[in-house]
Amino acid sequence: MKPTTRMKTPKTHQHADGKIGWALLWLLGIPLPALLVVFMLRGCT
């Protein structure tokens, strides 16, 4: 059975949510170097 567009959608939103979270932390005033350190410690996922 071929995957439909609907089946692919949740994965796309999951990546978008992660990017929005990092951007929100940056907008709240957390310095970019601190965010980069946390990003690297989490395994760049």
In short:
Helix content is 73%, strand content 0%. It is an all-alpha fold and 45 residues long.
What does the model show?
This protein has 45 residues and is an all-alpha fold. It has helices spanning 5-27, 32-41. The longest helix is centred in the middle third of the chain and has 23 residues, at 5-27. The mean pLDDT is 75.
Outline the fold blueprint.
Elements (H helix, E strand, L loop, with lengths): L4 H23 L4 H10 L4
Comma- or semicolon-separated keywords:
2 helices, 45 residues, flat
Give the C-alpha Rg: 14 Å
Q: Specify the number of helices.
A: 2
Shape: flat
**End-to-end separation:** 29 Å
In total, the number of strands is 0
Beta-strand percent range? under 5%
Helix and strand content put the structural class at: mainly alpha
Question: Low-confidence runs (pLDDT<50, min 5 residues)?
Answer: none
What does the average pLDDT come to?
75
Q: How helix-rich are the residues, as a percent range?
A: over 70%
Describe the sheet with the most strands.
Answer: none
Helix-strand pattern: HH
